[in-house]
Each structure stands twice: as structure tokens, then as C-alpha cells.
Specification:
single chain; 363 residues; alpha/beta; FAD/NAD(P)-binding domain; Polyamine Oxidase, Chain A, domain 2; 2 domains; eight-stranded mixed β-sheet; seven-stranded mixed β-sheet; 9 helices; 19 strands
């Protein structure tokens, strides 16, 4: 077993990285971030400056996330919305007057990955372990033992005073064995909490120019025909793109296959924006329902909406004071959103600072 660590963070998505950032700001150097993927960022994913995962935040109603972004010195871009919206319902494609969304949707210059990249730059690289999947957590009076499988299937154990769990509730229960088991009522609440956006998929098409703007179109579209139900301009400075959310459920996407989906997407964009839209320079599909580091089998059917945040810790028993959940799904105000990740991480670290078993006050 490795030398005991004060705090182990499981997951290097936004919540995990921001928790590590907050620990470092408090002077804590004895932390470790374990991530199953071979990259940080979690559901934040980019193709160059284009977002394949979450793309927007809303500064007017998410001031804490906005404050973090400003503190990190990151530039932002307003979502392009000028021009008409295209609509297809089965008859001729229509153009309707567009309108500015409220609150205003804002993106980061360079993509949302600029946020997680900036957080990583401020952390000790030796404290970030990519490709280390946690398979078991075992708690006793001395702390928590964390079992991992790393590169080349290397097995390791790590000891911690406290674990910050930055994985979605369902994913944590599906991929990690808890010894002893979590309280049944708590486990049931976690298992009933959908992973936000896990059933969904995005298509991104990159072009040489935003030709739709020359036609007086905003790049926005709504479709009852699919395969994309909602489309937006995803252009960045020096690059043009459209992206859409698939309206097809996960099972139908898997049955169709990626090449057929790409062909249907190109045909749909041509219907909406003209023949140039059928010839993207590059195109990407990200299907989160097929990502084992995001979705469980239960996540592949869309939830009706945002679930209420479950409890973040056991009220009593051996796990009390040793394990705190901090992924975005546990946020009270914006569960599932990027702002929720910041909120949940902040609450988890602040609670840990007052916990004698895992206090983080000082180095």
C-alpha cells in the first residue's frame, strides 16, 4: 500500500479538479486525484476549440462559476444567435424570426476544455493520476483503502483519511465496490439519480466558413424529423461549425451505426442550410450513452428532467466522515450543470475542513 494520503479525489472532471484546486488554495499538498480516463475533464471534451461535451454557461444566474472563470483569466464568447431559425416539421423547411435567449448563453474561447486545462495547470502534476480506475473502497477505523487498476492493468492500493467522490452517483455504484456496503437507503437514492446528459449524443460539423450567416440564418434549427432535434452555431474565432443534439434514443443510435448516422446528419443539415452543409471539413459524433466512464445501462433512457440531489454522505456508520460526494449531480442549485460541479466541489471541501477525521485546514 502507498503512503497514506490526506484526501483522495476520485474523478478528474470539473468537480474533481476544482476540489483539488480548492485544497491546494487551502495549503493542502497531500491530496491525490485518480481518474479512470486517460485524460482529465470528464464530460468536458473538445475537438480542438469545439465542444463535444458541455458548451454553455449562464453568467447572470451562475455567478460562482462566472467568478471562477474570471479568476482563471479565461476569455468568453457569446453564443451566436443573429438571424432566422430553421424549422422542419414534415412539410417545407421554414425560417422563423430568431430571438435572443435569456439568460444569455456564453461559451469559453478555446472551448470549455480551457476551464479544466487551466485548473490542471495550477495543480501538482504528480498529484494527478490518469488511467487509474478505482475498483473498491474499503473503510475501517484507520481510514479508507482505495484499490485501483492503472496502466498495463497494474493493481495498487492507496490509503486516505477522506475520499471526495467526483463521479455521478449511478456510475460510482456501478463501478466501485464499497466495503462494507453503503447504507441501503443511501445507495438506493444514489442509484435512482440519473447521470445528467448521459443518454444523449452530439454531432459536430466543421466548415471553412459560416456560410449560413451569409444567408441571414443564425445556425439554430429545430426538427421533428431528425436525426438531430436541436441545432446551434458552434463557430469560434477563425473556425466555423454547427452542432446538434440527436433526438434519436440511445438504442436507435446504436442500431443505426455511426456511418449511417453521419450520412443522415449531413442530409439533414443540407435540408436546413443548403448543399454546402452536406460537405463538412470534419465531423464528430460523441455518444455519451456508449461511454462506460459516463453512462450505466440505467442511464440510456432519458430522464424527465433534473433529479433532486441525493444526500452527499452517510448520516452515520463507518462511511460517515470518510466519504463525501461532490459530482455535479449532488449540487442543490444546478445539478448536472458545470455550475453544479463548482457548487458541489465547494461544499464538499468546505465540509471537509470542519471534519476532524479529514480536516484540510493547513498543510
Amino acid at each position: 500500500m502507498n503512503t497514506p494520503t490526506r484526501v483522495i479525489v476520485i474523478g478528474a472532471g470539473l468537480s474533481g479538479l476544482y476540489a483539488a484546486h480548492l485544497l491546494a488554495r487551502r495549503g493542502v499538498r497531500d491530496y491525490l486525484v485518480l481518474e479512470a480516463r486517460d485524460r482529465p475533464g470528464g464530460r468536458i471534451l473538445g475537438a480542438g476549440p469545439y465542444d463535444l461535451g458541455p458548451a454553455w454557461f449562464w453568467p447572470e444566474v451562475q455567478p460562482e462559476l462566472d467568478r471562477v472563470i474570471r479568476q482563471l483569466g479565461l476569455a468568453r464568447d457569446a453564443q451566436y444567435e443573429s438571424g432566422a431559425t430553421r424549422v422542419e416539421r414534415g412539410g417545407p423547411v421554414l425560417s422563423i424570426n430568431g430571438y435572443a435567449s435569456y439568460p444569455a448563453s456564453v461559451r469559453l474561447a478555446g472551448g470549455m476544455r480551457a476551464l479544466t486545462d487551466a485548473l490542471c495547470r495550477g495543480l501538482d502534476p504528480a498529484r494527478l493520476r490518469m488511467g487509474h480506475a478505482v475498483s473498491r473502497l474499503r473503510v475501517d477505523a484507520g481510514g479508507v483503502e482505495v484499490e485501483t487498476t492503472g496502466p498495463a492493468n497494474a493493481f495498487a492500493t492507496h490509503a486516505a483519511d477522506h475520499v471526495l467522490l467526483a463521479l455521478p452517483p449511478r456510475l460510482a455504484l456501478a463501478t466501485i465496490a464499497f466495503t462494507p456496503g453503503l447504507p441501503p437507503a443511501l445507495a438506493a437514492q444514489w442509484r435512482a439519480t440519473p447521470t445528467w446528459m448521459a443518454p444523449h449524443a452530439k454531432y459536430l460539423a466543421v466548415y471553412d466558413t459560416p456560410f449560413w450567416r451569409e444567408q441571414g440564418l443564425s445556425g439554430q434549427a429545430r426538427s421533428a424529423l431528425g436525426p438531430l432535434g436541436e441545432i446551434h452555431d458552434a463557430s469560434v474565432e477563425g473556425g466555423a461549425a454547427l452542432f446538434g443534439f440527436f433526438s434519436l434514443p440511445a438504442a436507435a443510435r446504436a442500431q443505426a451505426g455511426e456511418e449511417a448516422l453521419r450520412a443522415h446528419c449531413r442530409a439533414q443539415l443540407a435540408r436546413l442550410f443548403g448543399p454546402l452543409a452536406a460537405r463538412p471539413r470534419e465531423a464528430f459524433i460523441t455518444d455519451w450513452a456508449q461511454d462506460p466512464h459516463t453512462a450505466t445501462q440505467a442511464d440510456r433512457d432519458p430522464a424527465a428532467g433534473h433529479a433532486s440531489a441525493p444526500p452527499v454522505r452517510a448520516a452515520d456508520g463507518p462511511w460517515h466522515g470518510r466519504l463525501t460526494a461532490i459530482a455535479s449531480e449532488w449540487a442543490r442549485t444546478y445539478p448536472g450543470y458545470l455550475a453544479g460541479a463548482v457548487e458541489a466541489a465547494t461544499a464538499g471541501v468546505e465540509a471537509l475542513a470542519g471534519n476532524p477525521a479529514g480536516s484540510v485546514g493547513g498543510s
